[in-house]
Each structure stands twice: as structure tokens, then as C-alpha cells.
Amino acid sequence: MTAPSRSTAGTPTATRTLWVDATAGVAGDMLLGALVDAGVALATLQDAVDAVLPGSVALRAETVRRAGLRATKVHVDVLVEDPPHRTWTTIRDLLAQAPLDPAVRDRATATFRRLAEAEGRVHGTDPEHVHFHEVGALDAVADVVGTAAGVTALGADRVLVSPVALGSGTVRAHHGELPVPAPAVLELSRGWEVLAGGAGERATPTGMALVTALAEASSPLPPLLVRTTGVGAGTRDDPHRANVVRLVVGEAASPGADVPLPDAVLLEANVDDLDPRVWPEVLAALLDAGALDAWLSPALMKKGRPAHTLHVLAAPAGAEALVDVVLGHTSTLGVRRTPVTRTVLDRAWAPVDLGGGAVRVKVGHRAGRVLQAMPEFDDVVDLASRQGRPVADVLDEARGAARAAGLAPGAPWPPDGA
Predict the structure, then answer these.
(1) Rounded distance between C-alpha atoms, residue 215 and residue 149, angstroms
(2) Which tens digit of pLDDT belongs to each residue from 175-207?
(3) Is the pTM value of this prediction over 0.70?
(4) 284 to each of 50, 169, 279, 288, how far by Cα in Å?
(5) Contact criterion met (CB below 8 Å) for 218 and 163
(6) CA–CA distance from 59 to each of 44, 138, 342 (Å)?
């Protein structure tokens, strides 16, 4: 989905800015984790990847620690046999033919174009004939497409990046042992602020191509009204330095703009002539399309007609798509929009073992303390069905297991020993 318009004629604008902190390095999976941690639904990234590589890759997220810091790690699981390499032309055709949002396609294509040009210069070949190896693998394609989708979903008008840590030493690659920074990474660094940042490979070609294709400049953190942040984890856990990428998303107001932008939009419509049996499917369609929440409340309209008011909470970047769902799935002739601000808890999933199976517990936490912990009801129903037990019994057992695991209001988060 494309970034929404944030101005009207004669009104000062506020620019939604995404700042990438790559001072510990950068890789594609780290960017995916930071985007999910910043609030982008994992399903949004998965849908974009599936549009290009249907049935080939599965994304999954977990909460981890890196040098004592909490972060989100997104794993890219390859589900099919992966060819040894793909050409730039092949990947460009895949992106062109995929049913992607144009902004996602443009960002992903720009990233792979930079990779092709860098590899071509390093190996002395025409970029059109470059054969990608590591960066053409299924997981790297997922990194690029998923990151492009996440940046688009956040509604970023501009992207800035800190100086990027490249690393030092050597790394083993398809062509053998290479110096760090790898030749392609160094080529991608032309015109960008970088630093060594420690031993080993800190920036991968895919990660470097992403930040330099998406960002407009190297920059320290600019003045922002911060809306959300995200921390994405790399694979290694260096005890002396957190192996993470951080994102900061906020608004940078132009001169004269003094009204903060909303971080959510409330869409509403009154409906008095829809078969009530249809409403569950309407709500499900809205949630599947990315609504933050969707619900109904009863209403009494003119001439005493009973009705429902449909309420949909949307991220600004996704509001237009959700309006289309409301207009397409109900009989309303119009949708109201109200800008709103929210205070939300940080959330995480923690599995608990009930002996015969695991149930996820959704944890709401703030300032290092658990405020809410609730077993995921669908997991409870599934386990109860498999074990032939009453749902209420399994739910009680899951609540007890959560408390025993330190997932109770007032307990520290993350739990001791996690």
C-alpha cells in the first residue's frame, strides 16, 4: 500500500520518516525483524513474499535477546529446493510479474538493481548478465521483498540511515574466502557513511543494498515526533555488542506544522440493511486486510430502524485499502474517518507446555513488567479438540502454566532466565 497524503493545499506538511540505526551492522533478516517489532504484521511481509515466491518461503518471528537487549528475530524458512543462482534478469521478471503493490515492487526492484550493478562492477561483467549467488537465493529474495513491503506498510515518506558498520577480517563466500567488507558491500558503500564497527562481517550485500536503495541519505537521528520503534536481531549473539538493527519511525514537521499527525484512523459506517449473518465474514475480511481492530455496536436510526455501526481501527498507511473492504463487503454508501492516537502495550508471544502440547500466551508488557498475560484461545481450542477435553479445562490449565512460567501481572519482562 502506498503512503497516504498528509497535506492539503496551503497546509504545512509533516513527513513520516524512518531512520535506520545500522551502527551495529545490517542484514536483510535484521531489517525484517525490526519492521515486525515496529508493528508491521508478519502476514503483510509474508503476503508480499508469496506474491513473488508462492509456497517457497515461510516467515516466522520470535522474541530473542542480543547482548541483553530484547529484539525480534524473523526466520526465513525455505520450503522448496533452491536453485544455485538466479540472474538479475530473472529476478527483475519475477518482480514485474508478481501482483505487488507498485511501491513494494519499485523498492524491491531498486534494491536488486543496486546489487546487480555492484556485482557487475566487482566482477567486471555487464549487470544484465550478473548471476546472483548468495543474494539470489530464496531467503535473500524474501529479505528484499519483505523489507520493501514493511517500509511501504509503515507509510514512510523518506528513509534515512546512520553510518553503517561493515566489519573487518575475512568471510567465507561462494567465491572462497573474501576480505571484510566484502567487495560487493564496499562497492555498495560508495557515497555513504560507514565505519568498521568490529570484527567479522557486520553488513551483508543484501542488507547494504536495502539501506542504500531505500534511504535518501546518511544521517544521524533527525528531530522527530517518535511514533514507534523496532529492534531486529541478527543470528549471532555477541555478548559484547548487541547484534541488532533499530528503526525509529516518526514525523518531521515542516515549518509552521504544529499539529501532530494521528497514529491511527477510526473508520465508521452505519448499516441498517445487511443480513446479520454476513457480519462475521465482514469483520474477518477487515482483519485479514490489516485492520488493527474491527467491531460492531448496535444503533437506532431514523424511523426507529435498528442498525449496526461498523468500527474499524486502521494504521494511516492502510486506511484506504480498508475503506475499499468496507464499501465492497457492506451496503453502506459512505465511510467516516476520525484521526485518533493510541497508547498500546508492547506485546510478545511466549509458549507454555501443557504436557500434551504447547499453547502460546500473549503477553502485554511495559517498562519491564508484565501487565497482561492471556493464553491464545485458538491454541486452547485446538489442543482441547486433539485431546478430547473441555475447552474450559485446557484454558484453566494454560492460565496456571503461564503463572508458573512467570507470565503474570507484575512479573518482570522478559522472565528471569529467558
Answers:
(1) 15
(2) 567 788 888 899 999 989 999 988 888 999 999
(3) no
(4) 21, 51, 9, 6
(5) yes
(6) 11, 12, 28
For residue 90, give the C-alpha cell: 530473472
For 297, other C-beta atoms within 10 Å of its C-beta total 10
| Complete DSSP assignment for 78-114 | E-SPPPS-EEHHHHHHHHHHS---HHHHHHHHHHHHH
Tell me: do 269 and 315 sit in the same domain.
yes
Check which CATH number belongs to the domain holding 329 and give it. 3.30.70.1380
372 exposure class (CB count in 10 Å sphere: 0-12, 13-18, 19+): middle
pLDDT for the residue numbered 84: 59
User: 316 and 231 share a domain?
Assistant: no
Distance of CA 323 to the CA centre of its chain: 22
293 bridge partner residues: 313
For 101, what's the count of Cα atoms within 13 Å in the CB-facing half-sphere? Answer: 23
- Per-residue buried b or exposed e for 335-356, using 16+ beta carbons within 10 Å of the residue's own CB: bebeeeeeeeeeebebebebee
Residues forming beta bridges with residue 1, ordered by sequence position? none
Specify the DSSP element, H or E, that contains 76: strand 69-78
* Buried/exposed 185-198: b ≥16 CB within 10 Å, e otherwise: bbbbbeebebeebb
44 DSSP assignment: H
Q: Residue 95: which domain range? A: 25-253
Please identify, among 253, 280, 310, the residue that sits at the C-terminal boundary of a domain: 253
The one-letter amino acid code at 375 reads P
Kindly report the length of the chain.
418
Tens of pLDDT, residues 69-93:
999 999 999 998 876 577 888 889 9
Transcribe 106-135 into DSSP letters. Answer: HHHHHHHHHHHHHHHHHHTS-GGG-EESGG
- Domains: count for the chain: 3
In a domain, 10, yes or no: no
Tell which of 317, 340, 363 closes a domain. Answer: 340
Predicted local confidence at residue 356, as pLDDT: 80
Q: How far apart are the first and last CA of the chain?
A: 37
Q: What is the DSSP string of 180-195?
A: ES-HHHHHHTTTS-EE
List, for the chain, all residue ranges whose pLDDT scores fall below the cut of 50.
Answer: 1-12, 255-259
Residue 18 CA to residue 350 CA, distance in Å, equals: 29
Burial of 306 (0-12, 13-18, 19+ CB in 10 A): exposed
